[in-house]
Design brief:
Layout (H helix, E strand, L loop, with lengths): L2 H8 L2 E5 L4 H12 L3 E6 L2 H15 L3 E5 L7 H8 L5 E6 L14 H29 L2 E6 L12 H21 L4 E7 L6 H5 L13 H10 L6 E3 L2 H12 L2 H15 L1
Parallel strand pairs: 1-2, 1-4, 2-3, 4-5, 5-6, 6-7
Helix pairs in contact: 2-3, 2-8, 4-5, 5-6
């Protein structure tokens, strides 16, 4: 799809949550390069403002920064209210974070916040955006999940469960909205350069399949019309397809043993 066709279908304005780092920044960069105006959200407004200034200077587009803490249940509704009457053609619901380790070792409050950000926010943002997209007759919803949302992952139980909801949400909405001319894609990244991995104590620098965040964003946007799900690295797509084809007990036992060895 040419940039002009992309902007016509999904423009003129895109909303990107979690845009201050990682894949969210990559989405903002890619959309700006395709000529889209942006509304970017995150908690760290200083980073958003620096990103906005850079993208506006590089691409001649407008970027509006909105501070949003999606750990608050009311935040999605507040974002939607702020954008009422604006011609937003694409929602990129990217904000999220993860927790690793034995399930009982995770902080209960952190797990509750993770569910609010990873599950509640995309569900409510989509709920509010769908009537607007139907009214304009075109547009898109893009959710960032994870390959861990494709199967229950031992030692990542709560995070995998939260991303499984996102995968299921995206698949269901693809079925509902495709006849309406609205594209829905759930991105399931494999290893990606990001601050999120470092915060979880994961060193992925030696992983030969590590992809830059902007490349993952570019691939997702290139495949937006090819929903419902997209795994950004073919090696991980094949790996998870193989695991899901195994008897579930066998797959989960092998994954648990592998995670113990890595630990």
């Amino acid at each position: 799809m040419t940039d002009t066709a992309f902007t016509h279908r999904y423009g003129p304005l895109a909303l990107v949550t979690g845009a201050s780092s990682g894949i969210g920044t990559g989405f903002a960069e890619e959309l700006a390069a395709r000529g889209m105006d942006l509304v970017v959200t995150a908690r760290r407004t200083d980073r958003l403002e620096a990103l906005a200034a850079r993208l506006a200077a590089e691409h001649g587009i407008t970027v509006e920064c909105l501070s949003a803490d999606l750990t608050g249940p009311a935040a999605p509704g507040e974002l939607l209210a702020t954008l009422a009457g604006r011609d937003v053609g694409l929602l990129v619901s990217n904000a999220g974070f993860g927790l690793k380790g034995p399930h009982e070792a995770n902080d209960a409050a952190a797990m509750a916040e993770m569910l609010t950000v990873n599950c509640h926010a995309p569900m409510q943002l989509a709920h509010g955006m769908i009537p607007r997209l139907k009214a304009r007759g075109r547009g898109g919803l893009l959710f960032t999940a994870s390959v861990e949302g494709l199967i229950g992952c031992p030692y990542s139980a709560a995070y995998a469960a939260s991303k499984a909801l996102v995968v299921s949400l995206g698949e269901a909405l693809w079925g509902e909205l495709s006849p309406e001319g609205i594209d829905v894609l759930t991105l399931c990244p494999g290893p990606t350069e990001s601050e999120a991995a470092a915060k979880q104590g994961i060193d992925m620098s030696a992983n030969p399949h590590l992809l830059p965040a902007r490349e993952v964003a570019r691939l997702a946007l290139d495949n937006l019309a090819n929903g419902p799900t997209f795994v950004s690295h073919p090696v991980y797509e094949a790996m998870f397809d193989k695991m899901r084809a195994l008897p579930r007990r066998e797959a989960l036992s092998a994954m648990a043993q592998g995670m113990k060895r890595q630990g």
